[in-house]
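I would love for you to help me understand the pair of lines that follows before we discuss the fold together.
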Amino acid sequence: MTVTDTVHGSTETPAPWTASAALRQADPLVADLLAAERERRADSLQLLAGENLTSPAVLAALGGPLIDKYAEGYPGHRHHTGCAPADTVELLAVDRARALFGAPHANVQPRSATSAMLAAYAALLRPGDAVLSMSLQHGGHLSCGSRANFSGRWFDFVGYGVRAGDELVDLDQVRDLARTHRPKAIIAGGISHPRHLDWAAFREIADEVGAYLIASAAQTIGLVAAGAAPSPVPYADVTVAATHKLLRGPRGGLLLCTAELADRIDRAVFPFTQGGAAMNEVAGKAVALLEAGTPQYASYIGRAVAGARALAGALAAGGARPLTGGTDTHLVTVDISGFGLSGAEAERRCAGAGLMLGKCALPFDPAPPSEASGIRLGTGTVAAQGMGETELAEVGTLIAQVLDSGTDARIRGRVQALARAFAGHR
């Protein structure tokens, strides 16, 4: 394909067109910044739990013509004309989400898991209602009660936590708090708890006190898609998920709910909390949901989980303490206070070695959240690049060495070698 450049009235000889060439010509500064990001990734290992690599097919959908289409509303009931292809794409994404997760209803329009959670609250709650959720220090998300977030300002949150002995969710405490506070909704799930949840037990508690059950599954929905984690969908009234992270889709949110709540959820997304959907993201979600049902995706998830266990084992051997003694998922949350470091200092040290991970507050943590006593890691990205148990065991050993004595040229060189060896995979 060739085009003639007529930007600002100029005309040049037609040349083969590519998106990167167009960006380079129009805005070399941004083109350079994107190149710098590619170089950063090529020389480091991405172990941040909330990140992943979108698949090539999803990237193609994101850059397709639906990026320009305004499709406010829902299929068959848009506020703009010319939406026939957009309607079909959205219906396809909805059908694939329902089939993949066995859900009576799905909404694929939320722009993030946080905006999906906002819509769930809007559908089920009124300002001032009591909500029971995992406390932030024990692994809950900002949208589950932080005073810096809409949730903590609009609703009356009560936090439950984990047991001090084994660091598993304290269901006795959940039940006692539910009986005391009679919440309108109970939220099960968090962002740094590495073990599977007992969805049936949460459902039982919610039924006892007449509460809605909301599953916060942004981190784990990809595991559910591959059959590597128990599904919250049969138990929860509403399941809130992210389509990036393990699903390898575009940055965005997903809502799954009962048939009875379908209309309330849809109206809470549009027009209550959002305007027109980003239809290129909806197309990317459709692709990701299709790919998540393949044997290749199941193999990827298996590699991510096995790699996380190898990573946790190597960190434990190196002197760190994985919470709960290990992991059921792609998440590894680690107490690094035995090294005499805060989580913030550990994050800085590891970044200097090219090991990109995040600080993390721990249950019963004496340190302030800005410093914390832990780190949180995820294997989604490196597993997508092809790394398995052998490589992630070595990565755990390298992290422990950095925490113990800092980085050096040998460690940095080995991290770069691993990153470059798997940089071509996606």
